Amino acid sequence: MTGANCAIRGTFFDLIDDPWKHAGHEQEAARFIQDGLLVVKYGIIEDFGPFAEVSQRHSGLQVTHLPNRLILPGFIDGHIHFPQVRVLGAYGAQLLDWLQTWIFPEELKYRDRDYAATAARYFFDALLAGGTTTCLAFTTSSPVSTEEFFEEATRRNMRVIAGLTGIDRFAPEDFLITPADFYSQSKELIARYHRQGRNLYAITPRFAVGCTAEMMDSCRRLKQEHSDCWVNTHISENPSEIRSAREHFPDCTDYTHVHEKHGLLGPKFTAGHGIWLSSDEMRRFSKAGAAIAFCPLSNLFLGSGLFRLGRAKDPEYPVRLSVGSDVGGGNAFSIVRVLEEAYKVGMCNNTMLDGSVNPRDQDLAEADRNKLSPYRAFYLATLGGANSLYLDDMLGNFDKGKEADFVVLDWMAGQAAMSWHQSLAVEGDGPETMEQAAQLLFGIMTTGDDRNVAETWVAGSRAYQKAGA
Amino acid sequence: MTGANCAIRGTFFDLIDDPWKHAGHEQEAARFIQDGLLVVKYGIIEDFGPFAEVSQRHSGLQVTHLPNRLILPGFIDGHIHFPQVRVLGAYGAQLLDWLQTWIFPEELKYRDRDYAATAARYFFDALLAGGTTTCLAFTTSSPVSTEEFFEEATRRNMRVIAGLTGIDRFAPEDFLITPADFYSQSKELIARYHRQGRNLYAITPRFAVGCTAEMMDSCRRLKQEHSDCWVNTHISENPSEIRSAREHFPDCTDYTHVHEKHGLLGPKFTAGHGIWLSSDEMRRFSKAGAAIAFCPLSNLFLGSGLFRLGRAKDPEYPVRLSVGSDVGGGNAFSIVRVLEEAYKVGMCNNTMLDGSVNPRDQDLAEADRNKLSPYRAFYLATLGGANSLYLDDMLGNFDKGKEADFVVLDWMAGQAAMSWHQSLAVEGDGPETMEQAAQLLFGIMTTGDDRNVAETWVAGSRAYQKAGA
Question: What is the ipTM, given to two decimal places?
Answer without folding.
Answer: 0.97
